[in-house]
Design goal:
single chain; alpha+beta; 2 domains
């Protein structure tokens, strides 16, 4: 039995649904388990799904010509994730989206999303809000990467992903904020020292 209450709670922060609308929406979702290191989508594939994480954690990233990973987003429980560019253009994407741990997701295909807009127009407002928040967050992260120190970027990571601070592998956090794992270890020690002295930087 699939528990739809988490995704329903997420949606009803922005729109309210009738019982019939809920049932129709649920009928369009696909449940999937993605094993650790398994992929939702890969580079050069055309993305077909937007995913809502009900348990576990996904990440989106691309690999540059030198083989270095650049992590754009983590998606822990109660987060949405997808390759927006590929979803909108329906062209092969540049992103990989994989599972950091065994992860449970509810998937909405692009075809079913269009059907949802047609039958329940208020969902266009919901996904517009989600898209706008994603774009604002991405723009701010680009500016932060250009203007903030590594310590400030780490502090921002902790505020954005409090549930992941002590659960993600250290190298994943390092890739996200753009430092080496060794430098991140030093940052974390400095933050712990500051916190012990009553200066909570997070």
């Amino acid at each position: 039995m699939i528990d739809y209450s988490p995704i329903l709670k997420n949606i009803e922060k922005h729109i309210l649904l009738s019982e019939d609308e809920k049932e129709f929406f649920f009928s369009l979702l696909e449940h999937k388990t993605i094993p650790k290191k398994g992929f939702l989508t890969k580079e050069n594939q055309t993305s077909k799904y937007t995913a809502f994480v009900t348990n576990g954690c996904l990440r989106s990233y691309y690999i540059d010509q030198n083989g270095f990973e650049h992590i754009l987003q983590f998606a822990p429980q109660d987060w949405w994730i997808g390759d927006i560019h590929s979803l909108i253009t329906q062209k092969p994407g540049q992103l990989n989206i994989d599972a950091i741990t065994n992860t449970e997701v509810l998937l909405l295909s692009t075809n079913n999303q269009e059907l949802l807009y047609e039958k329940v127009p208020k969902f266009e407002r919901f996904f517009r809000i989600i898209l706008e928040k994603s774009l604002v967050s991405f723009r701010q992260r680009v500016i932060d990467n250009m203007s903030l120190s590594a310590g400030e970027r780490y502090a921002n990571f902790c505020k954005t992903y409090p549930s992941l601070i002590n659960t993600l592998p250290q190298k994943q956090i390092a890739y996200f904020i753009g430092v080496t794992p060794e430098f991140l270890s030093k940052l974390r020690r400095d933050f712990q020292k500051e916190d012990r002295h009553g200066k909570n930087l997070i």
